[in-house]
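Dear support,

I submitted the protein below through the web form. The confirmation email said the job was done, but the results page showed an empty box. After a refresh the structure appeared. I'm attaching both so you can tell me whether what I see now is the final result or a partial one.
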Amino acid sequence: MNVYDGQRIAAMLEKHDFEQTDKIEEADIIILNTCAVREKATNKVFSALGRVRRAKKPDALFGIVGCVAREAGATAFQRIPDLNFVLGPQSYHKLPEILKNPETKLLNIDLTGLEKFDELPRMEKSPAVAYIPIQEGCNHCCTYCIVPYTRGRELSRPFKEVLHDTKHAANTGAIEICFLGQNVNGYKYTDEAKGKTYRLSDLIKETAKLNNIKRIRFTSSYPTEMTDDLIDMFRTEPKLLPFLNMPIQSGSQNVLTRMNRPYTLNLYIDIVDKLKSARPDIQISSDFIVGFPGETDSDFEQTMEIAKRIKYINSYSFKYSPRPHTAAALMKDQIPESIKAERLAKLDSYLNELQRSFNESCIGKTMECLCEGPDKTGKHLVYRTPYMQQCIVNATSPNCEKQLANIRITAANKASLRGEIVD
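What the results page shows now:
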């Protein structure tokens, strides 16, 4: 979501004759687009604001948008008195107001629903990968998660509007569509006039009809929303990539219950089995939280077991971080940092082994990959496989200008692949 928000903020400011720069000391306006999922991320925001304040031009405007802005509210001005604006994730379309009145302080952290999608200008040229939000907020209220507070209750965008954005992206350069939502597979919009309810599977079907679109994916999925109609899309729609992020968070039923994740391990495993039956080459990634309040050694070992059973090819794992406005922050039996760190190191070590093993299994295979552009050296091109692996290709390879190319994988490590373009 932050990538999408950043792109739309840039497009909005370009309409006001701004252009992007990566040099803080030259910028006229500096915007930190923020995430508040973990406490460490929030702390980094204010450290970064301190560095910006020291490096920027005296008259440059600066501030924060996104979830940390919503979380901090007016206290952000107390911590950094010369901030110019603090705008929540549903309010950043108000940014032009500070351009009209640069001497004022702009604070807007209202949860205004879907208003920003009507207010933001469309991008004149889409990147190869277009991120299309289909909903805002979340209703699941996991006890560790701040999203319902920072982004509000779950709202699905009108089906027609999402398709309009998708077609616009396809007509302006996109060849891959990634549908976004905190609970993306829970998308549900009822068109009262037509008497029809649309789901994510309907969006995929219509998007697949666009000739310019070659790849479709979505993130991030909630297990209980992985309905049979959506699973069947992996069987019937070749443009849908064989890769799915479906966070489990913990392998312990007791911990899942305390997290307010209302699914059983058997249900989760059954969904994975159905997905693999529908698309035998599908691979799964996940998110994990270790050290949740009350997590025992046995609970943690069950998390290790589910990782071994599913064999995730890519995962994000974190130590539990207490967040304000969440039930888990008030729970007893908080786990000491030393135990969290020990468990995270053990889980990360195994997940890294799984990722390396899968990457190495790709050596010798040829996959159609999407070019993301040159690396920092300019000597190589970065491609993305159907499984979202990074693949590095020599920039002098024949046909390297192709956005989509068949690449034979020649080498692999834990982090990335190496390959060569084949005709």
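Response: this is the final, complete result; the empty box was a page-load delay. The chain has a mean pLDDT of 93.
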